[in-house]
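Feature request disguised as a bug report, sorry. It would help if multi-protein outputs had a clear separator. Right now it looks like this:
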Amino acid sequence: MVYDDLVARLNDRGYTNWLKASRCLVIVKDALHPFINGRMRDFHGGLLELGPRLRSPCASSCQPRGNQLVRVCAGCSQWQREILKHQRWPTTTINWDNCSPPSWRTNHWELAKAYMPRGQGKVKADKFDASALLNLINHCDCFSFVEPKPVMEMIKSRNKLMHSSQFNVSDEWMRNFRTTLNNFVKLFSQVTDMTTAQYQIIQMLTVDLSIRVSGWDQRDCAYAAEIPLPSEDMQETSVELISQWEAELLEESLTGLLHAAAAEDDTVTMEAEQLVRLRDFLQANPDLAERFPAELQALTALQARGEAY
């Protein structure tokens, strides 16, 4: 496989900044998942002890209508009240359309989905992205011990990255992002997986992908000399692996951008200029246009629909 297009992108400083920062979010997500799984399982178990109604099966195959949950059985109604009771920020919207109410009794991740952004309804527990987990921490009070400000800053950074139609962030933004990451990681210093993640984040932020596509030994920050080199089996990062990272990150970002653009069937949610930039980015990179044909077609259709208004 020829990687000429990828190598050209990796010589764009703004793009490699985007790629590395986005990859750091994946590292954070992977480190948080086991911890959050345990907390939500305990939280769910505690709710089940509150009364027999919460332990009773759904009596009516209850399902949300859009983002509304009305006319549900007594058991699901009790679960609904508990979910609302445990919001950290009572004025925020609960995304009922993420949920399958009959599964609240048996699956702690179905309970968690109520506190996540929209679009999580069919997502399996091991596929939640950083946004889903960060918003869960921010909105469910079983994480009330976590200081909210660093979490909110991480959510803002994630949204900037995933909603960037140009997949490009500046060096100044990256410096601020390093601070945001550091503050967030400190919140979870007691989480074993986060210690490993912290080292992986340092590696990712300091590797210069634009110089060495296949190596970790080129660093691009002032404190890099103080960081020990990775073990020998980690020093070679293949272009295939970088390409895989890129594909996964772009797929997540494109899915989010297209979902936002099509929300409520209203193209105003994303300006026409952004749609054009996003389409042009894919068309300017033949390998990406080939990899994401459906997304490119959707962008073209959205742009055409916007021009019709």
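(second protein starts here, but nothing in the output says so)
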Amino acid sequence: MAPPLHLQPSTAPVNLANGKPSAPSTTGPKGGARRRFSLLDRIPYQVRYMHDLVGVSDGDCRDQLRMDRSTFHKLCYLLHSQCGLKSSRNVTIAEKVAMFLSILAHHTKNRTVKFQFKRSGQTVSKHFHAVLHCVLRLHSTFLVMPTVVTDEEADHRWEMFPGCLGALDGTYIDVHVPTTDKGRYRNRKGQCSVNVLGVGDRNMQFVYVLTGWEGSAVDSRVLRDAVNRANRLKVPRGNYYLCDNGYPNCEGFLTPYKGVRYHLNEWTARRPQNFQEYFNMKHTRARNVIERTFGLLKMR
């Protein structure tokens, strides 16, 4: 004889109208809505934020960190492999670099980055200085040394300038200043700005930058300060940079002929008529590299 079966009472609610089990209730014990559990809730905020920042689109990454995702990951690799930057227990290398770039890209305060990354102010400051020390150690990798134009130069734009290192020029960067200082910072175009000196090589890479001078300062004065200060612009003897007539024509700096057409748009309709115009045409075509370098910088 078979042993009797011991049936456990069902705990599922039953619909009294048809005798069938009803759907489980989604209300809490006190009648409120029951919160559904999701594994996504267990992902730390920092992981989700970093995914949105550098894992979705180049546009968002460029807007927030001023570089695309590929460049960002290359920078993280360089800081790790060459400078020894490592992830800590709770902060990855990518998050450290992202906090560092957020401060540099937008001049963001510590308290803003603290709220943005959900970290303490001490953590933000600690990792900012750690990344800064590593970046400074990469100076030999990032700093560019100009190459001298030789007599066998194949580029037709530079073949007439043996010994040349590149070109330099100034540009205006708009700034906001107190009302009492607006007179000193107002440039010839009527805008408040700083006059930035940029020196570049033939490959559209900056080799020296001097900023801080008021917009009212003339280019020659900014260059004079650049060659006389402690961390000055150094031009080896026998070499020179191309510059326009806003700078002096002296040792280390070569300007075009004055009183002769010079700019690129002036050579489209009529060819050079004498050696001075021919020299100015070659000069402006070579010196235009610094204009294009500034253009790329301002596009970022």
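Even a blank line would do. Unrelated, but nice: DSSP finds ten helices and five strands in the chain.
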